[in-house]
Amino acid sequence: MRIFTLGAAGIVGAIFALAMPQLGAAAGAAEDASHAAAPSDARLHIVKIQGMAYVPARIEISLGDSVVFENHDIVPHTVTSQKPGEFDSGSIAPGKSWRFTPSSLGAAAFRCTFHPVMEGQLTIASKRAAAAENPDGGAR
Amino acid sequence: MKTFGTFLLLSLASASFAFAAPKVDDAQIAAIVVAANQVDIDAGKFAADKTKNHEVEAFAKTMVTDHTAVNKSAGDLVAKLKVTPEENDTSRSLKAGGEANIEKLKSLSGSAFDKAYVDHEVAYHEQVIDALDKVLIPNASNAELKALLVQVRPAFVAHLEHAKHLQSSLH
User: Fold this and answer.
1) Main-chain dihedrals φ then ψ at residue A23, nearest 5 degrees
2) Distance between CA atoms of B148 and A54, rounded to whole angstroms?
3) Distance in angstroms (rounded) separating the CA atoms of residues B125 and B25
4) Which residues have CB under 8 Å from B50's CB, separation 6+?
5) Which of A47, A103, B18, B58 is packed most tightly, with the most Cβ within 10 A?
6) Strand pairing class (A44-49; A66-71)
7) What pLDDT tens digit does each residue of chain B (171 aa) get?
8) How is the beta sheet containing A25-31 ordered, strand by strand?
9) A40, A62 in Cβ contact below 8 A?
């Protein structure tokens, strides 16, 4: 039984997920705040989890990029695709982070399984499309 | 539920009155925070064990995890600040209300149990958010204690939203 209806971001994400190939993932386990260096042509995007929200909540990256979700709250959170089996961080303890490197194009809405009011959307586009849409946003 | 909600409302209203003069101090605030979280930890443990509803169980476990984390942060901070939590009418009322709630839940089962537990969670979180806004945060004198109260407020709001969604699915 689903308790929550998808917000606008979730609906858009669901449509993208249906229209695009399923996301593959090379996901890391929860790690400390120090992050391994990304490949030279890839970018590292940071999403802070704080105040019971993903900041930013909508992320568009290029294929090959990674996203690190940093938990700055004092309670654990997850980053879990709303499409079952797609990706799931598991519990990210306070002060820890989870690095996710998708391996294919696509888009997915995600949320925290512990706090379903927390929602976000991750889109993996081709490098050219992502550069046009999001030239600097959130990348390190 | 309404009984508990009324009880908690009266407790916090009296706390507001009491805190107007004399002003509540940080030691009393610490005791209130600990009591408020412990009440929901106890209710969550009880509900997680008794409910047959997976959504209610997941919610109850989250309450246990989150409120335990808040209490740990509060405990670490008061230890650092060398503040000893001071029991007061509000903290004692919160504990008594929590015990009464669990006694009531013991007599229920199935959907009646789930509804009573979740109804209580809605009322509890509404009243605690109100207390944070009107009593606890304004009266906290130590900057770190005030910051912690501000930091935990979004968790209570998220819990309330979660509980309300759950409530709407049960009624």
Assistant:
1) -70, 130
2) 20
3) 22
4) B105, B109, B113
5) A47
6) parallel
7) 444 444 444 455 444 434 343 478 999 999 999 999 999 999 999 999 999 999 999 999 999 999 999 999 999 999 999 999 999 999 999 999 999 999 999 999 999 999 999 999 999 999 999 999 999 999 999 999 999 999 999 999 999 999 999 999 998
8) A25-31, A97-102, A66-71, A44-49, A54-55
9) no
pTM value is 0.80
Out of A4, A74, A113, name the one closest to residue B152 (CB): A74
Taking CA atoms, what residue in A is nearest to B74?
Answer: A74
Chain position carrying tokens 């997680």: B48
DSSP E strands in A78-125: the ranges are 80-81, 97-102, 106-111, 119-125
Residue among A75, A91, A92, A118 with most chain B CBs within 10 A, to mutate: A75
Q: Which of B55, B69, B154 sits opposite A3 (nearest CB)?
A: B55
Please report how the helices B143-170 and B54-81 are oriented relative to each other, as an axis angle in degrees rounded to 10: 170
- State the best of A1, A3, A48, A80 to mutate against chain B, taking most chain B CBs within 10 Å: A3
Our CA-based measurement puts residue A116 at a distance from the nearest CA of chain B, in whole angstroms, of 7
Residue type at A114?
A: F
